[in-house]
Amino acid sequence: MDRLDNTIRPYAWGSPTAIPHLLGVEPTGEPQAEMWMGAHPGAPSRTARGTLVEVIEADPEHELGSRAVARFGPRLPFLLKILAAGAPLSLQVHPDLEQAREGYADEERRGIPLDVPHRNYKDANHKPELICALTEFDGLCGFRAPVQTADLLDGLGVDSLKPYVDLLHAHPEDAALREVLTAILSADPEETAHTVAEATAACTRLGGAYAPYADIAHHYPGDPGVIAAMLLNRVRLQPGEALFLGAGIPHAYLSGLGVEIMANSDNVLRCGLTPKHVDVPELLRVVRFEPGDPGVLRPEASPEGEEVYETPIDEFRLSRYVLPEGGAARDLTRDTPQILLCTAGTVRAGEHELRPGRSVFVPAGEKAEISGAGTVFRATVIV
After folding, report:
1. Cα 44 off chain centre by
2. Is 255 helix (H, G, I), strand (E, B) or coil?
3. Alpha helix locations (H) across 169-317?
4. How far is C-alpha 4 from the chain's CA centre?
5. Do 134 and 251 contact (CB within 8 A), yes or no?
6. What is the distance, to the nearest Å, from the Cα of residue 307 to the centroid of all Cα atoms in its chain?
7. Rounded to 5 degrees, what are φ and ψ at 72?
8. The pTM is what?
9. Whose CA is closest to 347, among 364, 314, 322?
10. CA 314 to CA 336: how far, in whole Å?
11. Using CA atoms, how far apart are residues 310 and 346, in angstroms rounded to an integer?
């Protein structure tokens, strides 16, 4: 197996301290948002044999296994991250596989360069993802019941929000949500900025359930995403709990440290809380306007001590092992590629000692045994 040397991405919303604290190093003073583990061409992990992209390209069958190559092609189909949100991320959705293929092909036909700001589809893949909390983790996920949102907005006492309140009482619910989100994102920017300012002042004054939106507005003053965020369920994960974000589900991470895994894609359609491009017509094509519970996941334990986060996705499978002091070694050998990430304690993986934030890549079929006292996350695929 290969010890991984991973890139930390300094996005502006990142926490300056959470990842350094996990790694046991001094903060640099700059935001450290995501540590990437995998073979994404934008920031592939490095090994003693070269980047993980180079290692896999040299012998895909050996590194990934014949079944994974047959199912997903000669590439690692997932990207594992440690994510540290010190400020809210953009409100966003991801396309399903068919939408991604159609959107990518359309933009290719129209000759839209991959690196221009208004390009929506960077590849032809979907981007389902799972976030598992390492600390308390706050986020927004999926639409809450429209009537509940109507009550929340009405409680602000802002006259310019009353048309949205009336629309949210209409039926069917999916049509009401579509109409309100469309109205929010299509409104005159100056009028929207004034509405957001009034709503922010009310949220600050009222506190309680409104406090998160005051904080969001502090980071994104005047952004229509502040109002759009109020359409969504607010979720607070405790350590070990997770959220699965499927296609079309609007979401945003607000604060906290977590382990994130996703299909290896860059396809994001933004709804707000960002200075980046928002393509309203394409967004409305992708969003699923279905209110409901966000569905907090808790791991299901096996007799072997593996705690699995079950999702309907084959490109990734995330599980964890909590190893007690003096416990027996665990054999994790599989015929699929794996990344093992330590998040607590000290664990030995083969010849490598892993402390928090350290990880290894295990080629398909290679012996993988872990021992020690700590927590190890295991990322692999289902074939």
Report:
1. 18
2. strand
3. 173-186, 189-206, 211-219, 225-229, 280-286
4. 21
5. no
6. 20
7. -120, -5
8. 0.95
9. 322
10. 12
11. 26
Name residues whose C-beta falls within 8 Å of residue 1's C-beta, 6 or more positions apart in sequence: 340, 349, 350, 351, 352, 360, 361, 362, 363, 366, 368
In DSSP terms, 308 is beta-bridged to: 300, 319
Rounded distance, CA 252 to CA 268, Å?
Answer: 12
Amino acid at the residue 159? D
Q: Which residues belong to the active site? A: 270
**Cβ proximity of 328 and 363 under 8 Å:** no
Tokens of residue 127, six digits: 């981007």
How would you write the pLDDT of the chain (383 residues) with one tens digit per residue? 999 999 999 999 999 999 999 999 999 999 999 999 999 999 999 999 999 999 999 999 999 999 999 999 999 999 999 999 999 999 999 999 999 999 999 999 999 999 999 999 999 999 999 999 999 999 999 999 999 999 999 999 999 999 999 999 999 999 999 999 999 999 999 999 999 999 999 999 999 999 999 999 999 999 999 999 999 999 999 999 999 999 999 999 999 999 999 999 999 999 999 998 999 999 999 999 999 999 999 999 998 899 999 999 999 999 999 999 988 999 999 999 999 999 999 999 999 999 999 999 999 999 999 999 999 999 999 99
Q: Which of 94, 95, 88, 182 is nearest to 139 (CA)?
A: 88
Chain centroid to Cα 291, Å, comes to: 20
Taking the C-alpha atoms of residue 36 and residue 27, their distance in angstroms, rounded to an integer, is 18
| List of residues 6+ apart from 178 with CB closer than 8 A | 284, 287, 289
The residues near 240 (Cβ < 8 Å, ≥ 6 apart) are 132, 133, 298, 299, 320
Rounded to whole angstroms, the Cα distance separating 330 from 288 reads 41
Question: How many residues make up the chain in this entry?
Answer: 383
What whole-number distance in Å separates Cα of residue 299 and Cα of residue 330? 18
Q: How far apart are CA 253 and CA 260, in angstroms?
A: 11
